[in-house]
Amino acid sequence: MFRLTLTLSGEVVERFEFDQDHVVIGRGQDADARIDNLGVSRAHAEIRQEGPVYRISDLRSNNGTYIDGRRIQTHNLNDGDEITIGKFVLVFTAPQREQEIETSLGHPGEEEEPVGGTGQTMIMDNSLNIMQRSKGNRVKGYLLLPKRGERRDSFFLDKSVCVVGKGKAAHIRIGGWFIKPKHTVILRDEMGYVLLAIGKTLVNGERIEEKRLDDGDLVSVGGNNFQFMVGRPVL
Prior knowledge:
Largest sheet: 6 strands, antiparallel
Shape: elongated
Strand order of the largest sheet: 2-1-11-10-7-8
Strand content: 35-45%
Low-confidence stretches: 97-118
Distance between the termini: 18 Å
Mean pLDDT: 81
Number of strands: 22
């Protein structure tokens, strides 16, 4: 099961939950996730489950489908991805995610009324495309986590703040006698990621207090070794 949370201007409009492996997003009456607005094509995009992967594809829509500001034809979805269709944003919540997203998105509001009644898709003005391209300029990055046997998981840095520590509020929880509840913080900005050390933290073997991360940097927090990588983790 996965969830799509439909928002408009930061306000939740509707929530969809699906346990099927094929979902159509669009304005048409038979769409599984229906968005009744003329900026949305009747069959705008689809999500298909292929094994553990959820893949979204644009269905030759007039106004395009965007992921985190980048126009796509197909894209493997990650938890928390923002799918922009017209003026609306659909937040994708993967099945394994436990924390609800309502607190950061506000409360349900009324959906925008469709403009006109011709049944045709209204072409969005160029300012929306410019805004989406601007959002897409953000550098994407992730951390390769410490190995567990032969397995090495990754953590996608898709939020503005990521906390590493042993506290309950930490996004990446690690143990250790000298580990603080909030030991290391990684901040995301328009240029990339900045690491701030609250407790002892090494980057490429040197103790630091603050450093802008570069692709391939090795981060050590209390003997836990992470590697920062630019881009998205491979599923």
